[in-house]
Predict the structure.
Amino acid sequence: MKALLLVAHGSRRKQSNDEVVMLADKLKSRTDQYDVIHAGFLELAETLIPDGIKKCVDDGASSIVVLPYFLNSGRHVIEDIPEIVNQAKPAYPDVDIRIAPHVGASEQMMDLLISSANATR
């Protein structure tokens, strides 16, 4: 079973964290590519990345794609997330856990930016 863990930074503002959880829920209805989709956070919010990985495994995932919901390749994307994921991997030796490129690196970002700019009110 394939899982997607959407990882955001996390905020002290609950509504911001809730938006990420709602985005993960919306993704569930938009794709059949993943059997399990959860949200996780780097810090400041629940569910933290290791707990998100565990939730995916507990839901039957045999492979997990960790998707950093970040626009830029700062320290969190380059160092922190890979370090946290690599620390979690030994607990799940039979689960293939990989990190996707951060959202800001997507080729589709240019189209999204133009579309968002054109949607001004």
Q: What stands out?
A: The chain has a mean pLDDT of 97. The helical segments are 14-30, 49-58, 75-88, 109-118. The chain has four helices and four strands. The CA atoms of residues 38 and 55 lie 8 Å apart.
